[in-house]
Amino acid sequence: MKRLARVSRPRTAIFFPGQGVQRVGMLTPWIEAFPATANPIVEEIDDLMGFKLSKMIEEGPNSTLTATPNAQPAIMASSILILRILEKEFGFHSAERVDVTLGHSLGEFAALVAGGYVAFEDSLYLVRKRAEAMAECSRRAREEHGGDYGMVALITEPDHLDHIIEAIHEFIGHHSAGSKSESAQDVPPIQQVLIANINSKNQIVLSGNIEMIKTLMTNVREFTGHDPRAVRLNSDSPFHSPLMKPAATLMKKLLEGKSRVKGREHEDLVSFPGVMQCISNVSGRPFQSKEQLKDLWARQCVETVRWWDSIKYLDQEQHVRRWIGIGPGKVGRNLVGKEVGMRGKDTIKGGGVWGISDPREVEEVLRGLDETETLRDVE
C-alpha cells in the first residue's frame, strides 16, 4: 500500500499540443494581460516569419490560419509565448520545476525548445520549412494521383483497440511503425493508409487517402465485428505517412546545419544534452544522443506518433505525477488525463493534470503545483 512521504517534489512533465488546436484570437488574452512580455515576443515571431503571423492569429480568417504552413508555426509559437510569460511574469523556472518535456506531434518542436535542445528561432524556422514541405507533399499527391487526403480518428472501447490495430496491420501489410515507411514506399499515394497516431487506450488516428480509409474501415468492421466511431480531423494533409517522405528528407538536411541565432552561427542547430529529458514521438522514450535526436525528429514526419506509449512510460515507469499542458486548446490535457486520471490535485499520487491555455488558468495551476510540491508517493 502506498503512503505519503514528505521528500523531494514529485516528478513533473510539461507537454505541448499538436496541429488542430489553432483558433483565431488564441493569443489575444495573453497580449492583453501581459503586454510588456508578450508584445516583444510577438514582434520576434513576426520578424522571424517574415510576415505578420500575429495578425493572422488575431484576425484570421480561420481557413487561412488552418492551412498547414500557417497553423504549425502559429501553434508552436503560441505555446512558447505562454511558456515565456510563465517564466517572466510568474517566476516559473522550467529547468528547476520540471523533469521531462514532450509534445504531441507538432508539439515536439516546442518541447525541444523548452528542454533546451534547440533555440526558439531555430525551431520556428524548422517548423515553417517542414510545414511548407508537408503542404507541398499533399498538393503534389492530389495533382499527380487525384483523390482526397487527410486524417481520421477512430474511437473505440479500450478492450477492442488491439484487435482493431491488428486488423489494420493485416489490411495495410505491415506490423510495425518502424517498418512502415519502407514497406509502403512503393505503394501509390492514392492507396496509402497508415496509423499516424496511437493517442490513448481507446483512440488511434489513420492517415492517407480518405477513400482508402473508408475501405479499410469496412474491412475492420468485418474482420473484428467492432464498429469504432470515425471522426474526420481538421487537417489538410495526411501527416505521419510515407507521403511526407520529402518533408522528412528536408528535416534531416536542415538538422545537420548550424544555428540561425545571432552569435551562434558556428554552433550546431541541435544541442545535447538539454536541461531536462525530452520524449521522442517515434520511440516513446527519451532521446539518448544528439544523432538519435536528429534521426528521430526527422523520421517523425513519416512514422507513428506513439503518444500513449510515451504517457504510459512516464506514468508507470518514471513515476511522473504532475503534468502541465502548455499551449492552445485542451486536446493534449484530455489525452494525458485518459491514461493517468484527470485528477487536479491528487493526495494519493501527489500530483495532477493541469492545462494552461488562457491567463485565467495560471494561478490555479501554480497553486496546485505549490500544494503538491512536497508530496511524493512511496511504494
UniProtKB/TrEMBL annotation:
Q: Which InterPro entries match?
A: Ac_transferase_dom_sf, Acyl_transferase_dom, Acyl_Trfase/lysoPLipase, Mal-CoA-ACP_Trans/PKS_FabD, Malonyl_transacylase_ACP-bd
Q: Which residues form the Malonyl-CoA:ACP transacylase (MAT) domain?
A: 15-361
Enzyme class of the recorded protein, top EC level: transferase
Q: Could you tell me the keywords of this UniProt record?
A: Acyltransferase, Transferase
Q: Spell out the molecular function terms from Gene Ontology.
A: [acyl-carrier-protein] S-malonyltransferase activity
Q: Name one GO biological process term.
A: fatty acid biosynthetic process
GO CC, any one term: mitochondrion
Keyword Nucleus found: no
Q: Which SMART domains match?
A: PKS_AT (SM00827)
Give the protein's recorded name.
[acyl-carrier-protein] S-malonyltransferase
Q: Which organism is it from?
A: Oidiodendron maius (strain Zn)
